[in-house]
Amino acid sequence: MWKAIKDTYASASKGHVQQIRVQQIRVQLKQSSKGDKSIDEYIQHLTTTFNQLALLGKPIDHEEEIVKIHHLLLKFMKIFSIKKRN
Fold it and tell me: For residue 74, which phi and psi values (nearest 5 degrees)?
């Protein structure tokens, strides 16, 4: 009986911790910026983040991943073209 109680509450706690971790990763993803990272480093960071969510059973839609990376590349190209003009 005690084992059943322990297993029930332990799994609930693990699920709660996992849910909190998923929320943290999603917030980090929304707030992430390229900063001083190279494009390669930042795309690797995004890919790692997408993979972490998938491993936790909460994958981001592939199309949403592509949109996120596409927006990043557009921003980079815009900044690069502005710097190149100056």
Answer: -65, -45
Rounded-to-integer distance, Cα 4 and Cα 36, Å: 50
pTM: 0.68
Please, are residues 72 and 86 in contact by the beta-carbon 8 Å criterion? no
> 78 is in which domain, residue-wise?
2-85
pLDDT in tens, 8-67: 666 666 677 888 899 999 998 888 877 788 888 988 999 999 999 999 999 999 999 999
Chain CA centroid to CA 8, Å? 30
Domain count, the chain: 1
Structure tokens at 56: 């936790």
